[in-house]
Specification:
This protein is an alpha+beta fold. It contains eight helices and six strands, in the order ααβββββαβααααα. A hairpin with a 5-residue loop joins strand 3 and strand 4. The radius of gyration is 18 Å and the shape is globular. It starts with a helix and ends with a helix.
Length: 196
């Protein structure tokens, strides 16, 4: 059941089959249906997820019930609430299932244990963290100063296979714009592309 995850890790790190067998004690494959909420604000689970199949997302909801999507996680992406996973705080975000999903559920100690049994894993873990920080910095920069069109183009670049898998309302939420603005952006891009 953990074969996909093992292949992924062994493509990116020198973890041996024996080391992975040790690590697998802190991981379990689970299948969840679309709509299932895996983490809620206030939870203290310390759990992270690696997506084998399907699609997850993390988001917040304001006092009017509007969702603000932080991240999508398609196949071969990691997702979790870092406050809960790394700092033992309560979760700040919702994580739910956008498409029926098969995920690897990782407990709080997974990354630390991986680095203990395979010191070279540390380089990969640092790369994951730095990449996450890089994407968040780019995201903040886009939200603060980029046009809706530039935000949408950056979304397509980051999530090329997600645009056809989620409702436009979710994309608009991620971009921080209204669905109507997203429709205008898409029409304008289609017009520009037709003129080339």
């Amino acid at each position: 059941m953990l074969n996909t995850f093992q292949q992924y890790l062994q493509q990116h790190t020198p973890i041996s089959d024996e080391q992975f067998t040790q690590l697998s004690q802190q991981a379990a494959v689970r299948s969840y249906p679309k709509g299932r909420i895996l983490t809620m604000p206030g939870d203290q689970t310390g759990i992270g997820y690696f997506v084998n199949q399907g699609l997850l997302r993390s988001y917040t909801a304001d006092d009017k019930g509007r969702e603000h999507i932080i991240q999508f996680a398609p196949e071969n992406w990691w997702i979790g609430d870092r406050s809960s996973m790394y700092f033992n705080d309560t979760a700040a975000f919702f994580i739910d299932v956008v498409e029926d999903a098969e995920v690897v559920v990782l407990n709080r100690g997974f990354m630390e244990h991986a680095q203990e049994i395979c010191p070279e894993f540390t380089r990969f873990h640092i790369h994951l963290l730095q990449n996450s920080i890089r994407h968040m910095q780019q995201r903040v920069s886009l939200l603060l100063g980029a046009t809706a069109e530039d935000r949408y183009l950056a979304f397509i670049d980051l999530y090329p296979n997600v645009t056809l898998r989620v409702p436009q309302l979710m994309i608009a939420s991620y971009l921080g714009i209204t669905p109507e603005s997203l429709s205008r952006v898409k029409k304008e891009l289609a017009r520009k592309n037709a003129g080339q």
